[in-house]
Amino acid sequence: MQVWRESGPLEGLGYSQPLPKFARRKSFNERYPSFMNTVYSLGVNCIPGFQGVIQDEDDACKVAREVGYPVMIKASAGGGGKGMRIAWNDEEAKEGYRLSTEEAIMSFGDDRLFIEKFIEEPHHIEIQLLADHDGKVVCFPERECSVQRRNQKVLEESPSALLTPEVRSEMCRQAAMLATAVNYRSAGTVEFLADKHGNFYFLEMNTRLQVEHPVTEYVSGVDLVEHMLKIAGKQPLPADLTTESIAKNIKGWALEARVYAEDPFRGFLPSTGSLLDYREPEGCTAFNLESNVRVDSGVREGTEISTYYDPMISKLVTHGATRDECIDRMSDALNRYVILGTAGFAHNASFLADLCRHPRFRRAETPTSFIEEEYPDGFQGVQLDEQETLHAVATAAMIQATRAEREVMQVGASSDGYNSAPEASLFDAGAGGGDEWVVVQGLPGNDEAGEPNGTAYHTRIVDEDGGLVVEVRAMAADAGAVAARVRVGDYSWQLEQPLLEVEMDGVARVVQYHTPSGTGGGTRACGFNLGLCGAVLPMNVLTPKEHELYQHMLAPEVVDTANFVHSPMPGVLVSLSVEPGQHIENGQEICVMEAMKMQNVLRSPRAGIVAECHAVAGQKLDVDQLIVSLVSEEADLNEELAA
Q1: Span 509-542, pLDDT tens digits
Q2: Secondary structure letter of residue 452 according to DSSP
Q3: Averaged over 67-96, what is the pLDDT?
């Protein structure tokens, strides 16, 4: 076996990329005229665009107008959503050119860009292939990667619900034709954009095995990595492995979710920290096609997530006989996936759970604009229905009652005989009246206007016919309102462990329980986070007396942050676009930050005047570090400067 260097092969090792000339180019995305001429000459369906190198911002605007807005500005050596921007006008083309150039340099060391027509409402479809040294090319069932954010894939599935067998066959034919024409030798991917009418267009060719390859392995039963390495050793593909045989025997459905260290509640900004508790779903494997849940990860408890690498924590992959079964299995796996980090650390598992329950995703109506259309104001959290909310409240009461029961047992075993236990416990429920708690979803007490901070529910756990029932009544409801009744079946929780399984009203629930740092974790400490169906709910469980006393506490002071622009994440300040004394408008660019190889534009929260710049370009910033302070009027500015 051998590996290539510029001067020739090194003996003893194999090279698992196509050919030296392509390896030096890194990717077919560099769009050298010779390659694109090949694409056009073969009759591959192509997107209209300009394949030359864009020179500057003015050239970007000129080319974009010639191609026709909207356009996609792309890094020639790009991939993974890096160095890509959509532009709808000249202003966005200039900004897109600048940001894409900076991202391309940071990610690939290559600032070349090209521009092509942006296909509206497209679906992102890709064909996985294997090509050996005998010229044999095998294409696999398509993957759909349309659920994207900032051109970075979030969910990938195989096969696609969009494609007919005829369209699949034609895509595979064009992909194989292209691989043959360039003498490709390895695992690779040919990517297309497809519309709902069955039209599709060549997007790019990736000369590597991609992140989402496990979904292809599930539906084909083929180990792609094994064959890629065998091809590197110049072994031929098996005679019975053909495009036609695989297409006739697609094995169910597979779905992959990319779990990222990013905060979906703060615009998906990268998040850093250390993993305090990391537990993958029980029964999952790293690679076993007999298992229906797979996790590919490179982290473990104690791993530090830094700003220097891609924010991906893992790939969570599920398989099912049907698409619905596969999605349901993904939802369950996300419920069982425990990822807890240091203060401020966040991940996107709740967002992934929300995608899996979204009606449009369940109907497979997901063009690449899906996230932008369905979350125009960003992710606001999973919205539970009425039954789910009742089950969350009932579970919180059960948790606190269980913790209280532990305290009863501990006090009973104490030597001084002092009884400081709550008035009742879970197992006292049948002894006379039941176990009463006030569950507050959110903070207890009132705000400055005297309105409740959270939603309070009065709960009562009673023994009925040999089983437990939790009565739940919203405290804001009319006094005569009838309490909802939640019947509890199997209930399994090891105290203070992060996963709890409970059956409520005949529905099996997997619930995550985390005690926030600072509560001390004691039995009577108020406050824990409850995870249900992807929703993360801050719960405070109080005795009725405690809840009554909270109504008399002073509201916490609200800090006005409208005059400050802080760093929302750790990273590097790439550029600063304002200076002291400058008048700025609401939404105007303040600066650009780079973290985890992505450029992020920070904009002004309001109109005003820049009072002071507290950081300079090139400076490393911590999360919440002050960058720019603003004032409302010139008089305020003079007062600030005088101070």
Answers
A1: 999 999 864 333 333 445 899 999 999 999 999 9
A2: B
A3: 87
- Nearest-angstrom CA–CA distance, 175 and 557: 61
The 8-class DSSP code of residue 515 comes to P
Take residue 577 and report the two structure tokens written for it: 């676009």
| 360 vs 356: CA distance, rounded Å | 9
Tokens of 371: 């996230």
Contact by Cβ (8 Å): 63, 54: yes
* pLDDT of the residue at 409: 67
Position 484: which residue type? A
Cα gap 43→36, rounded to integer Å? 11
Q: Report which residue type is found at 421.
A: A
Give the single-character DSSP code of 313. Answer: E
Query: CB–CB of 236/134 below 8 Å?
Result: yes
Q: Is 247 strand, coil or helix? A: helix
Helix, strand, coil shares, percent, the chain, to 5: 25, 35, 40
Q: Pick the catalytic residue: 57, 170, 204, 365?
A: 204
CA distances in angstroms from 546 to 408, 474, 483, 526, listed in the order given: 19, 17, 21, 10
Question: What letter does residue 409 receive in the DSSP assignment?
Answer: H
DSSP notation for 533-594: TTEEEEEEEE-HHHHHHHTTSPPPPPP--TTEEE-SSSEEEEEE---TT-EE-TT-EEEEEE
Dump the DSSP string for 83-112. Answer: EEEEESSHHHHHHHHHHHHHHHHHHHS---
By CB atoms closer than 10 A (0-12, 13-18, 19+), residue 548 is: exposed
Which tens digits make up the pLDDT trace of 309-333? 888 999 999 999 999 999 999 999 9
| Cβ within 8 Å of residue 8, ≥6 positions away | none
Render 385-407 in DSSP notation, one character per residue: -HHHHHHHHHHHHHHHHHHHHHH
User: Has 640 been annotated as catalytic?
Assistant: no
Q: List Cα–Cα distances, 88 to 34, 68, 372, in angstroms.
A: 30, 9, 15
**Cβ contacts of residue 295 below 8 Å, gap of 6+?**
280, 281, 284, 285, 286, 314, 315, 316, 317
The pLDDT of residue 111: 86
Look at residues 230, 194, 228 and name the one whose alpha carbon lies nearest to residue 213: 228
